Amino acid sequence: KGFAQKHPQVLEIGAGLAGFVYQGDLTPNALGSFRNIRPGLVLSAGRVFSGSLIVRVNASFGGLRGDETKYDNPEFRKQRAFRFRTPLAEVSPQLVWNPLGKNYANKGFSPYLFGGVGFAFFNIRSDHSDFNAAYFSNGAEISAQLAEDDKQFLPRFRVVVPAGVGVRYNLSESFAVNAESTLRFPFTDYLDGFSKAVNPDQGDHYHSIMVGAIYRLGNKISSLGCPVVKY
C-alpha cells in the first residue's frame, strides 16, 4: 500500500491595517509626522521557499499628509504653514528573511527582515496659501522659491525601495498574526510638493506601521509515496 506523506503548506495570504507616516521637510520630527498619520490597508500574497525565505508581493493603499500648523515648536512652522496631502497606492515584490528558520513552525514567535523594489502612485496636493512672508526676514526670497516649486511637475508615479522589520506569531498550522514597520525611499524631494522653498538637499520619505493576519494555504497532504520493497 502507498502511504501519505505530509508536507508544509507553502502559500500564504495576508491582510493588515496600517498607519502611513510622512517624513520630510514639513515635520520637525526625524521619525515623521505622527500628528498627521493616515490609515491604510496592506494585502500580501507569498510563497514559502524554505524555513528562512519567503517571496511575496505586497499591495498597500493609504495616504500621506503633512501640516506645519500642527507644530508650535519651532514657532516659524506655524508662520510658514506649508501643508500637503496625497492618496497612496503601492505594489512591491519583496524578499522576506527569517533568521531563525521558523517559516514552517506551527507555534511561536519569530522575527524577520524584508526588502524589495516597488511602484508607488500619488496625487499630491500642496498648499502654501497661509504662508506669512512678513514674519521671515527672507520672506521675498521664500516667495520666489515657492513660485519655482509651483512650476515643478509633481510626481504621480515613483519607483520606491521598501525595507523593514517584522515579527510574527504562528497560532497554528494555518494561521499567524504579524506586525511590521516599513520605510520607503521614493527618491524625490517633491513628495510633499516643496523643495526649493524648504531644503532641496534632503529628500522625502515615508513609512508605515502595520498589524495583520496571515493564512497559509494548500493541501496538508500533498503527495503519495511508494512502498519499500524488500528482496
Characterization of this structure:
The chain has 231 residues and is mainly beta. It contains two helices and twelve strands; from the N terminus they run E-E-E-E-H-E-E-E-E-H-E-E-E-E. It has helices at residues 76-80, 139-151, and strands at 3-6, 11-23, 38-48, 53-67, 83-97, 108-116, 118-122, 125-127, 157-170, 175-188, 204-217, 221-225. The longest helix is centred in the middle third of the chain and has 13 residues, at 139-151. It is elongated and about 65 Å long. 32% of the residues are buried.
Number of strands: 12
Which bin fits the share of residues in helices?
Answer: under 10%
Mean pLDDT over all positions: 91
The topology string of helices and strands comes to EEEEHEEEEHEEEE
The shape is elongated
Strand content: over 45%
Low-confidence stretches: 1-5, 220-231
| Main sheet specs | 10 strands, antiparallel
Number of helices: 2
Rg of Cα set: 23 Å
- Please report the distance between the alpha carbons of the first and last residues: 17 Å
| Class based on secondary structure composition and strand pairing | mainly beta
